[in-house]
Amino acid sequence: MNSSTSLPLAFSSSTALDDGVLERRFTLGEIPGILWTPPTATPSHPAPLILLGQPGGLGMDRMYPRLVGRARGAAADGIASAALELPGSGDRTPLPGADQARADLRAALTAGEPVTDDIVDRLVLPLVDRAVPEWRSALDALLALPEVDGPVGFSGGVIAVGVRLALVEPRIVAAGLFAGSYVPRSTLGEARRVTIPLHVLLQWDDEGNDRQAALELFDAFGSAEKTLQANVGGHTGVPAFAGADAGRFFERHLR
Amino acid sequence: MNSSTSLPLAFSSSTALDDGVLERRFTLGEIPGILWTPPTATPSHPAPLILLGQPGGLGMDRMYPRLVGRARGAAADGIASAALELPGSGDRTPLPGADQARADLRAALTAGEPVTDDIVDRLVLPLVDRAVPEWRSALDALLALPEVDGPVGFSGGVIAVGVRLALVEPRIVAAGLFAGSYVPRSTLGEARRVTIPLHVLLQWDDEGNDRQAALELFDAFGSAEKTLQANVGGHTGVPAFAGADAGRFFERHLR
């Protein structure tokens, strides 16, 4: 379930943003994606790459303003970024069982009942199992471009996807994770075997998250360098300075 | 117990460090201290000030290498720093009951027994009660110097001292706290009333600290801006990048 299959990359549009960042839409097989490269990225000076994770369900178009903001920040440090539509998000085919899992989650939350491991597994694991090989295929294709090179970082999105990628994909050397989604028990086991440097953001008052589970996950990681940064506020309230700190983490490890 | 008494400031030495930072030893009444001012600090451009906290017991001379490192970092951002020998530390008179409290702490740790609230109170509260008015007197004297001005930050040292100062001293507008010492229950109550911006460092594997108590303290703070940064490692293993992040916190709030 973690191996990549070779999928063809085809660019469909190319736009120069006002700060000189080149934004190119692509498809990887049938999967839509966006690549942002800094003006410094050339075949003789290829840029390192950050894979921009997303929350499940919203879709890349609705996430675009935040994605391009993160990409511009990375580009200012000479780093390329890529986003990929998640399985079941945007216009992609819904994941089997996803609607039922979301309905069960809502029912549990509405009833004030605990969100069971079974619900979390059905909500998250099918996404992880499908997204990870797609990201690995994207890496194969993106790193074959002359202006993009390693090392590679993974940033944000569904934390269980980041953990799995950090574990199975050796080209990813650093991960900035967002502790803002449910954590399957099996992800805790995978976390113990993760050894790359980690920067974990936690919104202390995240209404859709279990703080204790996030702390347990941070504790589990086997990495010799791991940082937890927790800030006041809800899921979408990550302060600007926390974004800047995460940017410095990637600059330290990818440049 | 929180009011300051007026104590005279007398400089005893003055040394220009190689980076242009001026290091002046002083006494405040009988209490030894050190003031570091950046080359940019003049009566027409007075510098903001960081009070450099210290751990209890070691004494300012043994802490000097770390203190001057922190002071140089702040000076590079145009910020002055001051250290003050803690009550009972260095050559100062031991605090009544401190030896017994330390012996009881060691006995509990050796026996693998929990460190009781009673031990923590006897270990920490007499220090807090004496240190806080001394720091406030130091502020009176240091802010009267033409080259030093507010706003003021408090950084590191005994966290219960930092919490009390953040609560009672309105000239302190931001605090960088180190969750590396025992937390009396009463400090938790004080923390709920603290509202200034906070940057709290926690060493995740601190052998002489209770991680759960540190998280509970962070949760308690009433501040609308509070950041917890936790890193892998023991008490003395704060990574260099964490120091830089704390420096940026003060730059943001004092400049």
How would you sum up this structure, described in words?
By secondary structure, chain A is α/β, with parallel strands linked by helices. Helix content of chain A is 39%, strand content 24%. Chain A has seven helices and nine strands, in the order ββββαβααβαβαβαβα. Chain A has a nine-stranded mixed β-sheet, sandwiched between helices. In chain A, helix 3 (117-143) packs across helix 4 (159-168) and helix 5 runs parallel beside helix 6. Chain A is globular and about 55 Å long. In chain A, 46% of the residues are buried. The model of chain A has no long low-confidence stretch (mean pLDDT 94). Strand 9 (226-231) of chain A pairs antiparallel with strand 9 (226-231) of chain B, so a sheet runs across the interface.
Main sheet: strand order of chain A: 1-2-3-5-4-6-7-8-9
Total count of strands of chain A: 9
Strand content of chain A: 15-25%
The assigned structural class of chain A equals: alpha/beta
Task: Give descriptors for this structure.
homodimer; 255 residues; 9-stranded mixed beta sheet; 9 strands
Question: What is the gist of this entry?
Answer:
2 copies of one chain form a homodimer. Chain A has 255 residues and is an alpha/beta fold. Helix content of chain A is 39%, strand content 24%.
Topology readout:
The structure is a homodimer of 255-residue chains.
Chain A: E1 9-16, E2 22-28, E3 31-37, E4 47-53, H1 60-76, E5 80-84, H2 98-110, H3 117-143, E6 148-156, H4 159-168, E7 172-178, H5 185-192, E8 198-203, H6 211-220, E9 226-231, H7 240-254
Parallel strand pairs in A: 4-5, 4-6, 6-7, 7-8, 8-9
Antiparallel strand pairs in A: 1-2, 2-3, 3-5
Helix pairs in contact in A: 2-3, 3-4, 5-6
